[in-house]
Amino acid sequence: MNLSESSTAIPFLSILIFAPLAAAAIALVLCDERQVRWWTLLATASIGAFSLFLLGGFDASTAEFQFVEHREWIPHLGMHYTLGIDGISLLLVLLTTLITPFCVIASWTSVKLRSREFMICLLIMQTAMTGVFTALDFVLFFIFWEAMLIPMSILIGVWGGSGRAYAAMKFFIYTMAGSVLLIVAIIALRLDTGTFSIPALMDQPYDRNFQLWIFAAFFISFAIKVPMFPFHTWLPAAHVEAPTAGSVLLASILLKMGAYGFLRFCLPITPLATIHFAHAILWLSVAAIIYGGLTALAQSDLKKIVAYSSVAHMGFATLGIFSLVQNGTIGGALVMINHGVTTGALFIAVGIVYERLHTRDLARAAGLGKQMPVFAFFLGMFCLSSLAFPGTNTFIGEFLVLAGAFEGSLILGLAIIPGIVVAAAYNLRILQRVAYGGTNNPDHSSVSDLGLREILLLTPFLVFILWIGLQPGPFIGLMEASIQNILDIIARAAETAAPIPS
Amino acid sequence: MPDAQSSILVAFLPEWILLLGVLALFGVTLGTQRVRTARYVSLATAAALALASVATCGAEAILFDGAYRVDAFSQWLKLVFALGYLSCIVIGHNLKDIRADIRPEYFFLLATSVTGFVLLASSVDLITLVVALELSSFPLFLLIAMRREAHGQRSQMESAVKYMMFGIAASGIMLFGMGYLYGLTGTTSLPLLVERLQPLMHTPLAITGLVLTLAAFFYKLAVFPFHFWTPDVYQGASNETTAIIASLPKVAAVLLILRFAGTANPGDHSLALVFAALAVGSMFYGNLLALAQTDFKRLLGFSAVAHAGYTILGVVALEEAGFTASLYYVTGYLFMVLACFTVITRVSRDGANLPIIALAGLHKRSPLLAGTLLVGVFSLAGIPPFVGFMGKFSLLTSALQQGFLWLVLLAVLNTVIAVYYYLRVVHAAFLAEPPADADTSPIHLDPAARVLCILLIAVIIGLGTVPGLFLDTIANSLSSLFPLS
């Protein structure tokens, strides 16, 4: 792929990456915290609006990287400042830019202490997250990937719940440990090919053994980030202790980075290793779906339920990606987006409960629906989406994944079915308890229903849930070409590697 | 030739300034009312030294019959030393933990030591080099002993004696090794020595001479097993002195190691193995022992051993990219460690050593200090976008390029181990609740410290994200330094 020509005059992606950083610098000098809040909201909302221009200029018919920016960066070490997006990253970039303003709104009243630093952390996070999805130089990618750990652990560690210090440290060490091997893989690839350029690394005839090692290094790093069973143990701790905005960012964006890593690096750079390991990863995904579901069913803490449901949902995403058939991989990519919308919404909903009751205990939240009918409506829709009810976004994604799984093997497809049933069980359990409860519900008479801010906060999530659910075509259309391209690379690699029949 | 004369005078400008500064400081120590004056003279000297190094960056000259070389490489290093010197003065502030009657002498000795470092950057003759090295070391021995006595314990004396004994022993071994090198080549001029030694590098005698010479520099850098002084000296010396010992000598040591390691042929396995063993030993020893520390300075002492190990990774490759990486890394390390010591001296009450737990609640007491600590510590841990990451990255690249995969894997394993104790520091500063009896009053920073914090943060991020110019200069000068076959 030719990166030397810049396809746009305005550096859209650079603006998207560095605008939050500039906004953070301004937030540093604003005088009071009220101003900081409004400024952050204004900045993130304008960045979100600006990012929509990407949609206008994006050509979905090609798998080429677009909005490419390519400059010298550190010539001595052979690094370039290269940015660009394709169909896979476009949606994730938009998800990032659009969800951050809602994180600001969600923390409007819940973060009282040091809200200036909180907002600055959010803005730095946005820079790093956008950078991860747009970087086309491997070192640049890694810098964004790792730099994110600092603001995220501070978000968890300073503004989190009672076990926040432990959760923040665990999150940091776990993710950092995963990514040190990634750096070795990056250097090894560079020494083999002489470049850090991600597009140039794809679809190269590497030695099969070399691919297996590179894949293993990639896999550990991305599997921890996803997180795949059995690398998931940092996730419940981090999710439960993080403030609402932190949980939303974790669930909606950070977990996507692992799956994005699989799609962007594992599949196209190490196709032979992908085929080699796909079977094992598929079964790990099934394990994640069933384990995540069953564990969610056993929790009494609302946030933990949603956290473990994340493990299950991301199991669907990896299952789809590694099914290596068109339906499945597209489904997997769509599940990523869906999970970002639905789980983000669920975490905000849990945050709303927590703000009112100061507990996330399911039993204490029982019967809230009586005092909060509007909230119960939203929660109901989100739960239906989470259990993949037809007409909602998750249904489309998981249906495609299932179709892909059955295409691969019947046993695999059948093995997922209990996971789907469990998903219905734990989601309906939340809904039943919170909306109706039993005869001995705690007294909620002093609890007020959603205010205007909260309704405005939740409505866009609902819109997207129904929009993707009822008309998934445009969303799938955006990424179809890019995913097809990846699958073609794998097919080509398999063909050339196949033993020649004598 | 008046032209050549004047250009030589210009090329020697940084040293002139420093000598003038040292003389002025000596004058100040004789008078009364001296501490403030000494501080201002030091600040002015350091600032002028930095400016002069930048101004003479384009100069190329060979002075004193080939014993002293001024080029872009040496001037960059002088700039680094000048910035380190400037930071150390600001970090020391009013030297609250030094005996009150000898504070001006402290500034005088510090300037003398810096003169030694600056001379080292340009020395290309064994004799000049030894003189410069000793000139930089001896004042440091005294600086350690100048700490106030606390509770009748003379731990500062113990540290000073330890540092001195180890230092003198190391110097002796170095001179012994240099004797071999001289005997083999018949010259003390480094460029000539390098040229004549290269064909002899397969002989055991040449390797022995080289390794013995390097031992002194390993001692300065605190490479395992030459590190035994490190934790005790870090703990026994006053905070401001430790800041000096932890920063400037490390850069000088790497510079010297590179000067001599350049004699070896790339792919020399016996030397590469020696370096690799030292690197592995340092990394594991430093990191594992740092895990158990509760005193921040002692922790930094063990982490210094580990960082010496990382730095040696670049030397293992025995080629230019690796040398550049080592020098780049240690320059970054200078600033990271100074960032940590800025915090230590400001948080510590009346100059006492700082337990990690005393950092609790720092982000409420002084957000700027907490931010500086965060940047410094995460950079030490090797997290992007700070210089610690980019430095480690270039080190690992150079080692892997030479096929040392096992070494690279051990290094990244060490990075993970190290994250834990660095996180403990961050944990204390940001997450931990201060103990009931702890001081939670806001810390008021003097303007100079405020500026220093911001500059250190900027340099650590800047060197980590846009090191292009710096790396190119080092790489170009290194290739002219060693005519590698």
Features:
heterodimer; A: mainly alpha; 75% helix; globular; B: mainly alpha; two-stranded antiparallel ribbon; 20 helices; 2 strands
What can you tell me about this protein's structure?
The complex is a heterodimer of chains A (502) and B (485). Chain A has 502 residues and is mostly helical. Chain A has a domain at 270-497. Helix content of chain A is 75%, strand content 3%. Chain A has helices at residues 12-29, 33-57, 87-106, 115-134, 138-147, 149-159, 164-193, 198-201, 208-225, 234-241, 244-269, 271-297, 302-323, 326-357, 368-371, 373-386, 393-408, 410-436, 452-470, 473-497, and strands at residues 66-74, 79-85. In chain A, strands 1-2 form a two-stranded antiparallel ribbon. In chain A, a hairpin with a 4-residue loop joins strand 1 and strand 2. The longest helix of chain A is centred in the C-terminal third of the chain and has 32 residues, at 326-357. The radius of gyration of chain A is 22 Å and the shape is globular. The two termini of chain A are 35 Å apart. Chain B has helices spanning 2-11, 13-30, 35-55, 72-92, 103-122, 126-145, 155-185, 190-197, 204-221, 230-236, 239-261, 269-290, 296-316, 320-347, 362-365, 367-381, 387-401, 405-431, 447-465, 468-481; strands at 61-63, 68-70. A two-stranded antiparallel sheet of chain B has the order 1-2. The mean pLDDT of chain B is 88. Chain B starts with a helix and ends with a helix. Chain B has a domain at 1-94 and 98-146. By secondary structure, chain B is mainly α. Chain B is built from 20 helices and two strands. Classes of the chains: A mainly alpha (502), B mainly alpha (485). Chains A and B meet through strand 1, helix 5, helix 6 and helix 7 of A and helix 16, helix 17, helix 18 and helix 20 of B.
